[in-house]
Amino acid sequence: MKLVLTFILVLQSISMSSSFKSQQLKYSRVREAYAEKENGILKLLDNKSIKIDELEVYLRAFKFGQKIQLWGKNKSDQKFKLIKEYKVCKKSGKLGPKRKQGDLQVPEGFYYIDRFNPASNFHLSLGINYPNQSDLFWADKTNPGGDIFIHGSCVTVGCLPITDDQIKELYIFCVEAKNNGQKKIPVHIFPAKLSNKNFDVLVSKHKEDQDKITVWKDLKSVYDSFNKTRQIPKVTFLKNGKHLIESKQ
After folding, report:
1. Does residue 203 sit within a domain?
2. What pLDDT, in 10s, does the model give residues 202-219?
3. Confidence of residue 195 (pLDDT cuts 50, 70, 90)
4. Helices in the chain by DSSP H: which ranges?
5. Is the Cα torsion angle 50, 52, 53, 57 positive or negative in sign?
6. Phi/psi of residue 88, each to 5°?
7. Contact 163, 36 (CB under 8 A)
8. ∠ CA(111), CA(80), CA(132), 5° rounding?
9. Strand, coil or helix: what is 68?
């Protein structure tokens, strides 16, 4: 019995030592972020009845208005709850998707966090998987660009920067979600909050630009569906640059 218990403890120790969170905590900036922000994060989650060891997150960014919304839920819950909004402190480019290296555009579309950089030149950073399959259809074929991040340090040439203070908190939320087994943290980037009025204005101003209209129509479908159900629709990338969107009821 003693031997079995020892074996279990060893397995637990190995599991903990190899966890994503433990790997991130090897970096001083991540340790400092936890020291400063963990208690506040626990309070935010408690107010929403979300347990940190059950946390899943979803990010929505709006270029006009310069906001990043953090949504979260317990794994067992069906619906997301709005936890907090972060102000994007520097903007780059204009409304419309990113289509080539050096255009200074912030992407628009359906993405996920694909990298965590705890030693970033911009304090802490969360990589976004631009270009996605839709971008590759519409964008410059030789150099569509890349290296798009949500990061600290209020500078940008196509990223979504928030302050160092804010990225400490948002980074921890994402670390906790990934450590809980969330393989892909969705990041949906919209030109604006796509109310019917805002959408009609956008389409009217850019009616000759089929690229923008195509992406915005799909973003509108997801925006409306999530606002109604608080569940993320399933998005499938099609070969023609469009998306198949399956809303949850």
Report:
1. no
2. 999 998 898 899 999 999
3. very high
4. 2-17, 20-24, 28-47, 133-138, 164-179, 196-205, 210-229
5. positive
6. -75, 120
7. no
8. 5
9. strand
Q: Report the C-alpha gap between 199 and 220 in whole angstroms.
A: 8
Nearest-10 crossing angle of helices 28-47, 164-179: 80
Which tokens go with 67?
């906001």
| 227 domain residue, yes or no | no
Give dist(CA 137, CA 12) in Å, integer.
Answer: 46
* Cβ density class 190-210: b for 16+ within 10 Å, e for less: bbbbbeeebbeebeeebeeee
Q: Which residue from 159, 178, 199, 161 is spatially nearest to 75, judged by alpha carbons?
A: 178
Task: List the structure tokens of 137.
Answer: 């259809």
189 assigned to some structural domain? yes
Structural domain total, the chain: 1
* Nearest Cα to Cα of residue 191 among 203, 182, 181, 179: 203
Q: Judge contact between 110 and 186, C-beta under 8 A.
A: yes
Domain that holds residue 130: 19-197
Distance (Å, whole) CA 72 – CA 56:
6
Q: What is the token pair recorded at 83?
A: 């936890």
Q: What pLDDT digit, counting tens, does each position of 222-246 carry?
A: 999 999 999 999 999 999 999 999 9
CATH number of the domain where residue 125 is located: 2.40.440.10
Write down the residue that tokens 């991540």 correspond to: 30
Residues 76, 77, 83, 89, Cα dihedral to 10°: 80
**Domain contains 2:** no
